[in-house]
Amino acid sequence: MSGHSPERVRNRLVVSIVDALQGSSTVNQASSRELWREMLADELDWPVEPFGGERLRPWLLQVVKACTQVGDGPACLVRSLEYVEQQSVTVAALWPLVDEWEAVDFFNRADLGHLRPALQSLPAPELAAMARRASRSRVQELPGWCTTGWQIFLRLAGENSPAGELPFSMAFLVLSADWLVREGQADHAEVLRRFNRGQAQALGLEDLLAEWQHSEFPQPAPSLVPAYLMIQFEPDLVVADRYNVSHWRQSDSEGWHPVRGETVNLHREELPGTVEKLIGEAESKWADLSQPVFVEFVLPWELLNEPVEWWPSESDHPEPTPLAMDYQVVVRSLERLHKAAWHRHWHTKWRQLRERPADSHSHWGRRTQDGAYFFHLERELKEDRHAVCLVLSEPPADDLGTGRREILAGLRAGVPAMVWHRSDCADPDFQDAIGEILQDRGLGSLVERVGRWRKEALALGPDAWDGHVGRHMAILLDDPERKPGPSGQV
User: Fold this and answer.
1) How far is 116 from 98, CA to CA, in rounded Å?
2) What pLDDT does 136 receive?
3) What are phi and psi of 356, to 5 degrees?
4) Element at 331 (helix H, strand E)
5) DSSP 274-330
6) C-alpha distances in angstroms, 322 versus 230, 272, 421?
7) At what angle do helices 373-383 and 402-413 cross, to 10 degrees?
8) How buried is residue 209: exposed, middle or buried, by Cβ count under 10 Å (0-12/13-18/19+)?
């Protein structure tokens, strides 16, 4: 196979990494450079010599070469810079170079450059679906810097493939070559196939490659497992009315592997607009998905009664639409996620709801002035293992109100589902609707049934939907098996 020597390939990558680093404001300022160096040493668990005040480029060459001697050293280098600069232009330029370094290592230091023209010619709209198919849906979402076929190939080369399967990157080359042949680019396709044949022979993967090349691999049936966008609002502990907003996207039908997004600090009035932006980003990532999408809001006490399912999407349009039109929307409790002491009861109740929904039932709260009511409510919910849903007697509108205290009792008892009217839980229409929802085929499809009432309200249109009970239904549904990952730094 033509190409440069392994030493030259690696030296070229070292130089490209140094070129990118020299454009960093962090690297060019003494104080921030020293901070980055210390964080890099921590990431590597290895000392990094400080800059001696001589010329910067030779020092950077030494640092980068030292990083390449450590297993994931190049990734440590970029991560440590990302801690200082966050999503800077330099960081965005470095991650593809790290992927290329790992891809070169995976392919025994082969020169991969001759594959680049063919992979760059692949159409952007096809790439996400091709990557998902090549990985058998194990790579559900690609980083933002993977925008071309070349970058996706490099990224997939760094992913771990299960034993007995063709590596994801080689499967991606098979799919890419097939597309190029269909588009009349046989010369480009042959470059990819020749490389794959050589690698399959070197790695002992000829049979696996032949299976991919001689099989149609029909597209799998559309998944019935929902995709989730989980958005968390965590109160700023210093500044009032500000929140750390984190989010996770999850579309892997094989398991719970949420992909974390950036965490930002925002004022309360900015939250609806930010949610709208996150919805748009998720839709662009999931353009080829066919499964239903759930939007889950992880909310603190003070926002639990916020009508998030009626926040707008496409608000710049003359006729914006509420989230409830396109998504099943539920809320979750931030306090319960953070309170490990409540989790044992939570898991027990969830198993009851998931495994025996027909044997599960709801518990109706009652309006009372009896101060001992909340103690006995928690006791009854804990003793009745079949009680997995709590209907509030009042909305959780204020700190000391009945609704808030009922939710607290439910959270302590592990109740995974709670429903209420956002303004008047004594509304006869709400009482009738919830009675119908809760007696219909157990509690296994609670979200879908609440969603149908919301659809009925939507059908009336903006001028009349406030008069329909579906406009005011809130549902908290907490699955302890689907927790967000760490929210990360702001």
Assistant:
1) 16
2) 80
3) -135, 60
4) strand 328-333
5) HHHHHHHHHHHHTTT--S-EEEEEEE-GGGTTS-GGGSEESTTSSS-EEGGGTSEEE
6) 17, 11, 18
7) 30
8) buried
Span 260-289, pLDDT tens digits: 888 999 999 999 999 999 999 898 888 777
11-25 tens-digit pLDDT: 999 999 999 999 999
Q: Residue 482 and residue 308: Cα distance in Å, rounded?
A: 20
Yes or no: say if 160 and 147 are a contact pair by the CB < 8 Å rule. no
Q: Is the pTM of this model over 0.85?
A: no
What number of other Cβ atoms are within 10 A of residue 1's Cβ? Answer: 11
**Taking a C-beta distance cutoff of 8 angstroms, is the pair 226, 232 a contact?**
no
Crossing angle for the helix pair 149-157 and 89-106, to the nearest 10 degrees: 60
CA distance 226 to 329: 12
Give the separation between CA 291 and CA 225, rounded to whole angstroms.
6
Q: Interhelix angle for 446-460 vs 428-439, to 10°? A: 140
Cα 19 vs. chain centroid, distance in angstroms? 32
Which stretches within 214-285 are classed as H helix?
271-285
Q: What is the DSSP letter of 449?
A: H
Rg (CA), the chain: 27
Rounded Cα distance, 195 and 251, in Å: 32
List of residues 6+ apart from 41 with CB closer than 8 A: 47, 48
DSSP-based three-state secondary structure for 266:
strand
Return the domain boundaries, the chain: 6-106, 113-213, 227-477
Residue 403's Cβ-count burial label (10 Å; 0-12, 13-18, 19+) is: buried
Amino acid code (one letter) for 50 = P
What three-state secondary structure class fits 370?
A: coil
> What one-letter code names the amino acid at 219?
Q
Structure token digits, residue 396: 């959780």
CA 89, chain centre distance (Å)? 23
The residue type at 402: T
Q: Which helix (H) or strand (E) holds 132?
A: helix 124-134
For residue range 44-101, what is the model confidence (pLDDT) as tens digits?
A: 888 888 888 778 999 999 999 999 988 889 999 999 999 888 778 999 999 999 999 9
